[in-house]
Design brief:
With about 450 residues, this protein is an alpha+beta fold. The protein has 3 domains: about 160 residues, Reverse transcriptase/Diguanylate cyclase domain (Alpha-Beta Plaits, 2-Layer Sandwich), CATH 3.30.70.270; about 60 residues, MutS, DNA mismatch repair protein, domain I; about 140 residues, 2-Layer Sandwich (Dna Ligase, domain 1), CATH 3.30.1490. It has 14 helices and 15 strands. The strands form 3 sheets. Strands 9, 10, 11, 12, 13, 14 and 15 form a 7-stranded antiparallel beta sheet that branches. Strands 5-6-1-7-8 form a 5-stranded mixed beta sheet. Strands 3-2-4 form a 3-stranded mixed beta sheet, with helices on both faces. Helix 13 runs antiparallel to helix 14. The termini are far apart. The N terminus and C terminus are likely disordered.
Length: about 450
């Protein structure tokens, strides 16, 4: 630690910026189809043109006004926000209260994200890419606290003008505070938390805004009369440690503005995963299988994009009240087999066929990023392979609330240990799908 830093702090000399793209998937679609800007827009994972299956990956702010939320089933989203093209044909539906639906197109989103990353790396000496739509930047040696707000505004302007998407930026002396700051004034936000004011900045915020505090932990803290970040900062550390272990002390430190972490480039992940919650616990086997199939495709696709093979395939199942169950199967060696991810995940899910389920997830781990030869899997799938020890636990798990973007998160031991956020990856989709064709004399979608 630098001698100039006080114990338990990151020191005023560290300037951290957290850049978070607003409704990134929707923003990419609006960049591709400018007529969609300002319109209710839903981007669905596992969604295909004209269908009702799949789940909401993200929704524009206009769509959220109709109650459409991340991780919501497309069928439910359609009940709240009918498709515009169907509203035109059905006199019982209001065209004004209808929206547009597009399938996730990860290839396109990755290309847009690459343009954003190029700007970020040009503006900072150290960049930690957290996900497709967010990153931490250490700009300590680039700017001062007196000039950082101007720098951040220039960064936002550059991203919007050069790439065509909007970013919110938070700046603070710590990573945890910068993350919270970027969420405070969305969309198109810019919040700077000066050194010495971090605890004051946190004081009146809801406790769930603290890095590492998810909805379940927030409810448990509320039961301890800890409802704000200020309450958490003032709480007895021993009480928190008894209830939450070392994580209790950690979230208290974050609420107090004490975060010693520095921004470091992210290496290869140890695992890749996606998870999704149901609106309420369900015993519907087909609904559970459908969700797992979508997640399996997403995870396999993400592994392919990262050039990763995997030797272990697992699932996560959360049953009421908040019991976390994980199951996994190890293969003879590392592979890249999307169909196998799907089959193994569904096979493992079979144990929970009759159980009420709140959330499901799929994970691949024991990753291999080398270009070695793929393992021979002859005979695998009929009970071969190695079953890993079954783990079951009760208590809070990581969730995602990243500005409503995904509703899909990671397993606790997954590729990023953040308390919130992250895009969801899904299988590839045709960039031409779900695009409404306009009449020749029509130039915008607003009147369609």
């Amino acid at each position: 630690m630098d001698a100039a830093r006080l114990p338990g702090t990151s020191g005023p000399e560290q300037i951290v910026a957290h850049v978070d793209m607003d409704c990134f998937y929707a923003a990419c679609e609006q960049r591709r189809e400018p007529a969609l800007r300002g319109e209710p827009l839903v981007v669905g994972m596992g969604y295909e043109t004209g269908t009702t299956h799949g789940a909401v990956a993200t929704a524009s702010y206009e769509a959220r006004a109709y109650g459409v939320e991340s991780a919501m089933a497309i069928s439910e989203a359609l009940d709240r926000l009918p498709r515009k093209v169907e509203a035109v044909e059905d006199p019982e539906l209001s065209v004004e209260d209808a929206g547009f639906y597009r399938p996730v197109d990860m290839d396109f989103y990755e290309s847009v994200a690459a343009d954003v990353r190029e700007i970020l790396h040009a503006e900072a000496d150290v960049v930690r890419e957290v996900s497709i739509d967010e990153a931490y930047l250490d700009v300590t040696d680039r700017v001062s606290w007196e000039t950082v707000e101007s720098w951040a505004q220039d960064l936002k302007d550059t991203i919007e003008s050069a790439v065509g998407v909007v970013a919110s930026v938070g700046v603070a002396p710590t990573m945890s505070a910068a993350k919270v700051a970027s969420d405070r004034d969305k969309p198109d936000g810019l919040v700077v938390v000066d050194p010495g004011t971090v605890r004051e900045f946190f004081a009146d915020l809801p406790v769930e805004d603290v890095h590492g505090v998810g909805p379940v932990t927030a409810r448990e803290l509320d039961a301890l009369d800890i409802g704000t970040a200020g309450d958490l900062a003032a709480a007895d550390p021993e009480l928190l440690a008894r209830r939450f272990g070392e994580r209790g002390r950690e979230i208290r430190r974050y609420a107090r503005g004490e975060d010693e972490r520095s921004v470091t480039p992210k290496g290869d992940p140890k695992s890749l995963s996606r998870e999704s919650a149901f609106t309420e616990a369900t015993t519907d086997s087909e609904a559970k299988c459908r969700q797992v199939r979508t997640l399996a495709e997403a995870v396999a696709d993400r592994a392919r994009r990262k050039g990763a093979r995997y030797q272990t395939i697992g699932i996560k199942v959360v049953t009421p009240p908040f019991d976390v169950n994980t199951r996994a199967r190890s293969l003879p060696g590392p592979v890249e087999e999307p169909e196998l991810v799907r089959r193994v995940a569904l096979s493992l899910l079979g144990e929970f066929d009759d159980a009420p389920v709140r959330k499901v997830g799929v994970r691949v781990s024991n990753l291999d990023f080398s270009a070695g030869e793929q393992a021979n899997l002859d005979g695998f799938g009929g009970g071969s392979g190695t079953e890993e020890p079954v783990r079951s636990a009760s208590g809070p798990t990581a969730t995602t609330a990243d500005e409503g973007q995904v509703g899909l998160g990671t397993f606790a031991e997954s590729d990023e240990d953040r308390g919130s956020g992250g895009e969801t990856a899904t299988g590839e989709s045709d960039t031409g799908e779900a695009h409404v064709s306009l009449p020749p004399d029509q130039t915008t979608l607003a009147d369609f």
